[in-house]
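Can't paste images in this forum, so I'm doing it all in text. The chain is below; anyone willing to post the predicted structure tokens underneath?
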Amino acid sequence: MAASGRAKQDQQLDGSKLKIAIVHARWNEEIIDALVDGCVKRLLSVGVKKENIVIETVPGSYELPVGAAALASDVSIDAVIAVGCLIKGSTMHFEYISEAVSNKIMDIQFKVGKPIIFGLLTCLTLEQAKARAGLIPGVMHNHGVDWADCAVEMASKYGADFRTATWK
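Text version of the structure:
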């Protein structure tokens, strides 16, 4: 039987030479803590050294682009994972923040020439957020694991500055 996509990917990921930053919002603490924990555990499992994982916080998801840009400006950082969680309420707040953060993270990525991983959950309910954070056993896995994989893969393929790097 053929190996799964994750199994093939596991064999290819090597974060041993990378420095990865995680910036996370402080809102929805239970969800965020689980996602960051998933990121860190996965980064360690693919070889990123503990001392090469930088973790910083910002007040909320709206501030993620500023935190990500500040971390990415450090030449020693190879990729940044921006982690937040928005849960739709009864106002337009959710739509404005999710769109603004999405667009700005993409912009920053191209300005700094480093991968900024979009780790913003945009959920309709708290239950959906808990599921995506791996907090409801058997429903979904922790998406922080996927974001860690993405950071290592992108940093490994594109090097320090993807604007000038060639595909590896």
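The longest strand covers residues 79-87. The chain has one domain: 18-158.
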